């Protein structure tokens, strides 16, 4: 961060994680562009942050599953040189197994969690690279590491965001553009109600308050973390996971099947 941190564009900013990011970033001196469908809630938040933090706050009401709205936000990310930070937070959850699922609902979730996040990150990269600075924060989930704890499609969207961020980190290295994937566990937000789950039935020791989650994520960003898992007590566990994955690397693609398959030509 510099003395003039620039403008942060936050998606899904009308409530929960997005609204909390907006609050914290405003207090760090960022001007804001708040993106969500609920213009009334955005205006209420914007008015409060202008008064409390003394920053400029613009409301950009958009449905990121609608192509025209998504392209409008993309253009802003590419063309507005004041934007230095994208918080790719907008997302939704659909509960239940794939069998018998509402496929249209799943497609909408994929559109929001994957397609919109990817296109916005791409637009941000296009805007940031010529200026040699910028930060992209992708809000994923611990389900990227423990997919069996929820359903197949939602967990897969969060695994995508983790992989996407890790690869972007490699692509953008030494460019001045930084990326971070945030992997919250259960967080006390409206997503539970919207997905049809009663949060009161969840183990309270597993649910983190949204203020603590965002504060930890921003601390991880300050520390230079590419992957931040706010609830993880010992970072050595994550480092061991990464080391184990890299150890498999040389054997993931070879000229013959592994000997355990007993196929001719195995080494």
Automatic annotation (TrEMBL):
Could you cite one Gene Ontology molecular function of this protein?
A: oxidoreductase activity
User: Per UniProt, which keywords does this protein have?
Assistant: Oxidoreductase
Q: Which family does it belong to?
A: Belongs to the short-chain dehydrogenases/reductases (SDR) family.
Q: Which PANTHER family match?
A: ALCOHOL DEHYDROGENASE
For this entry, the protein name equals AraC family transcriptional regulator
Species whose genome carries this gene: Skermanella stibiiresistens SB22
